[in-house]
Task: structure prediction
Amino acid sequence: MFLYGVVNASGDSLNTDSIATTPQAATRRAEYLLDHGCQGIDLGGQGSTDNATVVSWEEEWLRLEAIVDTLAALGVPLSIDSWKPEVTRRALEHGATVINAADGMQTDEMWQVAADFQVPIVLPFLSGPNPRQMELVRADPVQVMLDFFTEQLAVADRYGLRSLCILDPGTGFAPSNWPWEERFLYQKRVYSNLDALRVFDLPLYIALPWKETAQHDELLEIVLRQRPEYGRVHYPEKVRHVERELGLV
Result:
């Protein structure tokens, strides 16, 4: 599995180890990730959780500009995690090589950025217009995702970008009032049925569980056994260890 390691230029991240708000800190974080099993870096400048303050695209870009330049110089794939087209465009101009579309590519502006740069697009399922405006999925989540990706890939076809899309079930996104036990069952249902998304004949990308609980460990094993092509990770050494234990490498 190709692993993208997380670097957050916003102080709002739930994973404090991922936070790096200066080029120097971002370099240290990236070097750790690459030394412990990652092949690429995923960089974001705006938290998507309910405790995060939403900032203007100008402020988000101010957080990112120098860090994008620094990480791009490492010469590894660099994805920009944003739902703002202005930020995404500037990051690609400064050396980012992948769009991690936190809005699920639900605006024409984001599709136009992707069309202009012709880079891979991580396309996540979202049950709302962006990560901060999510609704509970009340039907079978696998079918809801199939319907969502069918619609979004039809848009991708209009821009000639289907072949550049990488599908993400978006299980890291959920309303804050969703109890963990419900979220756990939801994620287990989705992760156990990732093969259903293979109908689109596109690679899969999963934000891998990172918390140290038995349920998160169970979810991680389920995901890894499904052999997605890409993962987004905070602690790559743990993922590589579990892969070896499961005989997947």
Q: What stands out?
A: Residues 141-159 form the longest helix (19 residues). The beta strands are 2-8, 40-44, 78-82, 98-101, 121-124, 165-168, 205-207, 230-233. The mean pLDDT is 93.
